[in-house]
Fold this sequence. Notes:
Elements: E1 2-9, E2 16-23, H1 28-32, H2 42-48, E3 52-53, E4 58-62, E5 69-75, H3 85-95, E6 112-114, E7 118-119, E8 122-123, E9 128-133, H4 145-149, H5 157-164, H6 180-198, E10 201-209, E11 212-213, E12 220-221, E13 236-237, E14 240-241, E15 265-266, H7 273-276, H8 282-290, H9 293-296, H10 306-321, E16 328-335, H11 349-358, E17 363-368, H12 379-382, E18 386-388, E19 394-396, E20 404-405, E21 408-409, E22 414-420, E23 430-433, E24 439-442, H13 453-482, H14 488-491
Antiparallel strand pairs: 1-2, 3-4, 4-5, 5-9, 6-9, 7-8, 10-11, 10-16, 12-15, 13-14, 16-22, 17-22, 18-19, 20-21, 23-24
Helix pairs in contact: 3-6, 3-13, 6-13, 11-13
Amino acid sequence: MVRCAFIFKSSRSLELKRVTFLLPIPNPVLLDRRPPPSSSSPVHSRVANMSTFGSHFRVTTYGESHCASVGCIVDGVPPGMALEPQDIQTQLSRRRPGQSNLTTPRDEKDRVEIQSGVERGVTLGTPIAMLVRNQDQRPHDYTDDTLDAYPRPSHADFTYLEKYNVKASSGGGRSSARETIGRVAAGALAEKYLKEAHGVEIVAFVSSVGKVHIPRYPGEQLAQDVKNGAPIATETKDGVPVVEGKSFYGESSTDGPPQTKVDNIIDTSNLTEEEAEEPLSKEFRQLLSTITRSQVDQNAIRCPHELAAERMRQRILLAKANNDSIGGTVTCIIRNVPSGLGEPCFDKLEAKLAHAMLSIPATKGFEIGSGFRGTEVAGSRHNDKFVLKPDGRLGTITNWSGGIQGGITNGEDIYFRVGFKSPATISQDQATASYDGKDGTLNTRGRHDPCVVPRAVPIVEAMAALVVMDAVLVQNGRTATAQRLSREPVEALPNSMKMPKRRKVDE
């Protein structure tokens, strides 16, 4: 027991009073053995490693928006894998700014430098450090007394100060999307191993910008020009798409944000009842099963649907012309995933994917498989029935589960969608409050993306690769250990407790 004393002020008499009482405490020996701040014990590391992702394939990122460099340290990389800087650079180049007039004008080449863990083009199995030097910083964009006095709306300025009582003086600091360079570099490394060792393919693409999205539901079609029923015109004026002198999405106005004109049209009159109730259309499912990265990269939007991509481009240009921003979604498909990955309960693979995706800056939503649409479908139509596949593998006829059941992969493709909000930095006057609570107006400067989703595609792919890579290493450790044990105890179990022998396809 320990004697405790507290001093408090009475609300009635305003006198200071002292209260003493006894409290039980844990074993003092345990208290004496708490790890010091420099300890690397698992308990302390779990609390301290706020910038580390993964358990067996561990990635630690570092850097701020305007510091000297950003990058990562990757631990758990298998030894003996061929690795060259270009294996990493390809994905970094897809992520880098300044790719088109749809992205931030910040001109960073983002050339990767591998600092350790690789010799003569071969991984050593030791930690791999990779960095990218910041070369086009403009911290003077943020040297303004007004900016210092106001937390930028929907940025992390306020929350970082609340947490740390100090923040970076320019840009978003640690919350900047520059931090994702380390993720993409590590993800490219993981993806190379997954492809070589297991044939895993990961492809992400932009599925929507604002209200413009690739048709994904039964009977859904892109909206047509309401006057003549034809696709919208692509004529532009000052970079903004116009139809008979007006923007298709609404007239540009300095009085407020532009409004989208129409959503996609859904007409299920030509579909059977069963087809109309499917969570995803046959056409969208076909897209998921065949889409390639080269098809995604055919346009700056990174949308494989030609007409939808053009409308998305126009929507981004309209936001840019109005000094505004717009959000969107990225859909990702992972093919050839080994079955058995993921853990029951708290470390389910879909939970790991959600964790990974929602850790990306600007993300606000995640759904996997049939997602929220699946909540509207009866179980008799939503259940994924099993069938013997031509390759002798037991698989499912449909894949509304998104390749994961009970938190564990079943060998089918994994597909999910990630929602990104509109970028918070906009060059408009915003009525807000200063740190001391005074009303005022803030107009932020700096270079920013009017829409982040075209550049978010390789980031989503990278985080997906990190999740699958970590799960593969966890499962490899489990199966390698089990293979050293005798099979006799398992063989003695009843059939209900073990995998039965698989019949041949032609039987």
